[in-house]
Specification:
By secondary structure, the protein is mostly helical. Helices cover 51% and strands 0% of the residues. Helix 5 (86-96) runs antiparallel to helix 6 (101-112).
Length: 144
Amino acid sequence: MGHPGTDSQYVEIVTDFARSIGMVPFVLKKEQPGYILNTLLVPFLNAGLTLWAKDIADPHTIDKNWMISTGSPRGPFGTLDIIGMETPYNLNRARAELDPSYGVIADKLKAKMIDKGKMGIATGEGFYKYPNPEYKDPNFLKQN
């Protein structure tokens, strides 16, 4: 991602390098925070976290619904376990300064996950326990 001061030759150099090492470069037309993936991912994760924080549904139900509906191999909570709890907590805590509804998410993440050491795959437990055979089990979508 270049910006107005970036000479286009450097964007091309970086793009060519990325291809040469087996990456798939996605060149953005203009600068913006979060690139493409995080711009799509953060609202998805926060939608799941909001359903959980407001006690509308539990993580397993939310993930299972997403997985059945989209054919995705994991839902928002399986994805959060990969990311870890610290980054989503910090993002929601920072956003809470402008919108208190994000504070509800941050507070629940802290109380139910972080304070209990459930930081995700890195600690062996997040919303799921790891190693987690559920996502590899073809019957996962049929359970419960």
